[in-house]
Amino acid sequence: MSINEDATIIARAVVLLLDNRVAEASEELASLSQDDPVPKPAIIAGCGTIVPHLPRPSVKPHQLATVLRRDGWRCQYCGRKLVVAGVLELVGALCPEAFPFPSGHHMPVGRTHPAAIRVYPAVDHVHPVSLGGAWADPQNLVSACVPCNELKSDKLGWARGTFSNDGWNGLVEYYRALAERRAPIRRYHLDWLRALGT
Ligand SMILES: [Zn+2]
């Protein structure tokens, strides 16, 4: 299976959802692999490496969006195509059986579709914050899939790959139309739609 099979299937499902073909979208999503993406025990966090006991300001949506856009919405370690987190949540809301994705963005293992965890757009600190790396400096942030982000954790010296840019943009172009299916659009989505310039 190609590393980008998940993104391809989710993209097809989104197009079907926007065409009101919910049953077909659910069928499409049912073909996603259920394989667990992360070695156990896994802690799936929203983004980046979470170091406990150190309160710090969150990286803002527009800062994360800048990094993800710069990196072509691909994991910079393995090349996996990533999908806008809000799109994943909306697909989950529209097809809860086929694609469970609880809102709240902590992706509880066992209640979140493994494919959603694989393509969730994490942002990794190249130089770990726990080792003195800057928290919100774009130079220290790269787009990463959750499996790579979990495996890398606080390690140093992971090499970034070079990946062809085929215009993939995380399904940004469908985000607003999808959000409008769940009107009124929640504040979380409004903030991200603004950050993504859509
Ligand atoms: Zn990766």
Fold blueprint:
Layout: H1 5-18, H2 22-29, H3 61-70, H4 85-94, H5 114-119, E1 122-125, E2 141-144, H6 146-152, H7 172-180, H8 187-195
Antiparallel strand pairs: 1-2
Helix pairs in contact: 1-2, 1-4, 3-8, 4-7
Zinc ion (ZN) binds next to α6.
How would you sum up this structure in a few lines?
The protein is mostly helical. It has helices at about 5-20, 20-30, 60-70, 85-95, 115-120, 145-150, 170-180, 185-195; strands at about 120-125, 140-145. Helix 1 (about 5-20) crosses helix 4 and helix 4 packs across helix 7 (about 170-180).
Return the string of H and E elements. HHHHHEEHHH
Instruction: Tell me the overall shape.
Output: globular
User: Helical proportion?
Assistant: 25-40%
Oligomer: single chain
What is the strand content? Answer: under 5%
- Our count of helices gives 8
How far the N terminus sits from the C terminus, by CA atoms, comes to: 32 Å
Could you give the count of β-strands?
A: 2
Q: Which structural category do the helix and sheet elements fall into?
A: mainly alpha
Task: Write out the distinct hetero groups bound to the structure.
Answer: zinc ion
Q: Trace the largest sheet across and list its strands.
A: 1-2
How many domain regions? 1
